[in-house]
Amino acid sequence: MLLKDQVIVVTGGAGLIGRSFVSAILAQGGTAVIADRDEGAGDAVVKSQQSQHPLASIDFVKTDITSRQSLQALIAAVHQKYGRIDALVNNAYPRNQHYGRKFEDVEFDDFNQNVGMHLGGYFLASQQFAAYFKKQERGSIVNMASIYGVVAPRFDVYGDTPMTMPVEYAAIKSAVVHLTKYLASYLKGSGIRVNCISPGGILDAQPEAFLARYNSYSLSKGMLEPRDLQGALLFLLSNMSQFVNGQNIIVDDGWSL
Ligand SMILES: NC(=O)c1ccc[n+]([C@@H]2O[C@H](COP(=O)([O-])OP(=O)(O)OC[C@H]3O[C@@H](n4cnc5c(N)ncnc54)[C@H](O)[C@@H]3O)[C@@H](O)[C@H]2O)c1
To answer: Which residue in 169, 186, 214, 217 is the catalytic one?
Structure first.
């Protein structure tokens, strides 16, 4: 039990990767708090996880990571119930209705809005939780970045599909990697660690032709599944990584080599 008695907040915990993280936290004896904007999806994850882990402790708190007030209410609710918060996983994936356009078609306002919601939301959640962790004199933040914040996209994998790697995403995720280092350094001596995980693409019913091109760059499995990221998360949340700080763990089956 790597996370026994630990209380861990997962933003975007109702989504594809978030619900797999929640499941891993519960399996390791931790308490998981899903902080997500989507109430229906959050409630569904709570129900399905409760049936898989009947003894585990799981909550949903409706949260918007772009609202200071919402984040403060989240922290207050979790503190009131458990008297402690051990970690924040910045995993939400906010995007507006125009997100995903090709470079030439991205409007200035959409660029700013998507960067603001996603990178700005990770900043705001980190700021609010760091203030709580400072008082507690310990805490851990794990940011979800991406290989697309580390290496340039391989645009050839998208072929003639409507898919692309949005320019905002590269800007956001490279900034998340650096925000991680900035914050780890800024919080020196506070007992707070800040690290990030950079996954490659994650399987989610993508077109076969795209997958074949993507997989040709992988070293063993091909595109990974959400559960393949659990080990990196558990390592960073647990005491096994006590002296790992400001680091970025790439989990992509060697795709970005
Ligand atoms: N899926 C991938 O291929 C992949 C690859 C690398 C990195 N990532 C990163 O992993 C993280 C999770 O991605 P995912 O694929 O599970 O996304 P997802 O869209 O499946 O889930 C994201 C969740 O975030 C929630 N959300 C959106 N805006 C929010 C807000 N303002 N406040 C609170 N919650 C909000 C959504 O309701 C949703 O439940 C993201 O940071 C993403 O960039 C994903």
So the answer is: 169
